[in-house]
Amino acid sequence: MHMSQDIGVWVAALLTLGIFSFLYRDNPVYKFCEHLFVGVSAGYYVVLTYFSSIKPNLLVPLFGHFGEGRNFLLIIPFVLSLFLFSRFFPRGDWLSRWSIATILGVYPALRITGFGQSDLVQQVGGSILPFWVAGDPLTSFNNTLLVLGLLATLVFFFFSKEHEGAVGGIAKVGVYFLMVSFGASYGYTVMARVSLLVGRVMFLLDNWAGLVRF
Amino acid sequence: MNLASIASLDRRWIFLAVGLLVILPLAFGFHIAPVEPSPRSRGFYDAIEKLPEGSTVLLSGDYDPSTIAENYPMHLAAARHLMRRNMKIIALALYPAGPPLTDQVLHLVGAEFGKKEGVDYVNLGYKTGNELVMSSMGSSIPRTFPVDRRGIPVSEIPVMKGIQNYEQFSLLVNVSAGFPGTKEWVQQVVSRYHLPMVAGVTAVSAPEYYPYLQTGQLHGLLGGMAGAAEYEALINRPALAMRGMDAQSLAHVFIALMILLGNLAFIGKQPARRA
Predict the structure, then answer these.
(1) CATH number of B39-238: 1.20.1050.10, 3.40.980.20, 3.40.50.10160, 2.60.40.10?
(2) Distance between CA atoms of B186 and B39, rounded to whole angstroms?
(3) Which of chain A's residues have a Cβ under 8 Å away from the Cβ of B144?
(4) Residue A212 is nearest to which of B27, B203, B223, comparing CB atoms?
(5) CB contact under 8 A, B225 and A184
(6) Tens-digit pLDDT profile for chain B (275 aa)?
(7) Which H/E stretch holds residue B222?
(8) Where would I find the beta strands (DSSP E) of B63-168?
């Protein structure tokens, strides 16, 4: 059993305990750890983005190669990125709208095509299933349940007709399917949160306190 | 103590109980239940097993230290499985704090299997842009990642020889904590380039990906620490996730009991409220 002699491990362990102190009540130690995390994360993100993206993908291809191989088209994103900083100057802040308009134009277009294919076309295809699969009663039951659950849930979200009579009954079945889905999501959420605690306890017991080796 | 008093129970007692139920099994290492691989985990395992030895695989570790407990064990297990089968690994991360974790995984497992950085695997590092990075890689990976994480031009890295876009990969293995991650890889790469994909995700996001599994857009899915433990069992290499599952199971039983008691207490209070 050997406690860690690594200063980095000690800092991480004390910060972990500082964050856990919130479970008892809010306190200055927790606040310090929280603010430190936000500040360090922001600084790390800025430096990393510069060295991993801005420098190798923009500055070096544009200014770094003297002679052949320069990509002058990169002047366009370079200028647009500079325009974003015009928001600091009230008289010229309209320039930033060009950059934002470019982002808003490209990004949704890129997402819509992928979304349409994977989340609409493929999902509609995936819900067209046979109710009866010869020799496989379990798959037959699963397929039937999936299709009925899908239809009932869609009826629940159909608001052009009042939820009364048969429509109301089907919508109610849809609610039960939604409840099962929320329950499953909640169960997974509990598992995720407990896993995070398990991870920190492993770190404290192993890397810091040296009580157990995982 | 009757059921009604549960409503006024100081929540810190519950925190303490959960804490003890997690610490004790980890400290004393007792074993509760065996880990049985699910069809989802088996799909993940089979997708890698079916690849010819020496194939090139894209390994994207899209997570950071906040989800290390769930994602790191599955990342480690996937790297072990891939290197055991002599796959070439092209790794990257779409989370800013992801590359050091990818480095740690690749160096640790690379040393276990005697693999060399640059020859058998490479860490291309982080690139900002989310879906734009994925889309750009479809046109040209060397243009999207001109240098690896060490700053070496990809044209000088042996394992990157001949890698132009997604066509050179046999499989995409994604370890994901959320956005950008599995959903975006499916939308941008699987749907457009038809690259087979498996994913290991955090438990909180796992239900979101079941539809992709059902439609065959994902060949396998590891959900949270439980999924990682199942995968460790499949590759016959028990590690962090399997060690954590006993603590996880005990905490789950306790939380389920608390939910049950809480609901019974709520139901017990109902008539009094109506009156």
Answers:
(1) 3.40.50.10160
(2) 20
(3) 57
(4) B27
(5) no
(6) 577 777 788 999 999 999 999 999 999 887 777 889 999 999 999 999 999 999 999 999 999 999 999 999 999 999 999 999 999 999 999 999 999 999 999 999 999 999 999 999 999 999 988 999 999 999 999 999 999 999 999 999 999 999 999 999 999 999 999 999 999 999 999 999 999 999 999 999 999 999 999 999 999 999 999 999 999 999 999 999 998 998 999 999 999 999 999 888 888 777 655 54
(7) strand B220-223
(8) 88-93, 121-126
| Terminal Cα-to-Cα distance of chain A (whole angstroms) | 13
3-state class percentages of chain A: helix first, strand second, coil last, to nearest 5: 80, 0, 20
Instruction: Please answer whether residues B60 and B93 qualify as being in contact, where contact means their C-beta atoms are separated by less than 8 angstroms.
Output: yes
Buried b (16+ CB within 10 A) or exposed e, A78-87: eebeebeebe
C-alpha distances in Å from residue B213, one per residue of A118, B134, B223: 11, 20, 12
Q: How many CB atoms lie within 10 A of CB B215?
A: 18
**Which residues are CB-neighbours of A36 under 8 A, at least 6 positions away?**
A15
DSSP letter string over B46-82?
Answer: HHHHTSPTT-EEEEEEE--GGGHHHHHHHHHHHHHHH
Nearest chain A Cα distance for residue B74, angstroms: 13
What digits encode the pLDDT tens for the residues A48-71? 889 988 988 888 888 876 556 678
Chain A nearest C-alpha distance from B56 (Å): 24
Query: CB distance B225–A198 less than 8 Å?
Result: yes
Enclosing H/E stretch for A113: helix A95-115
Over residues A131-140, the pLDDT tens digits come to 999 999 999 9
Does A1 contact B at CB distance below 8 Å?
A: no
Closest by Cβ to A23, choosing from B12, B96, B212: B12
Of B223, B178, B179, the residue nearest B198 (C-alpha): B223
For chain B, give the number of residues: 275
Q: Give dist(CA B78, CA B173) in Å, integer.
A: 8
Backbone angles phi, psi at B92, to 5 degrees: -155, 175
Greatest distance between any 2 Cα atoms in chain B = 79
Torsion of CA A46, A51, A55, A58, to 10 degrees: -60
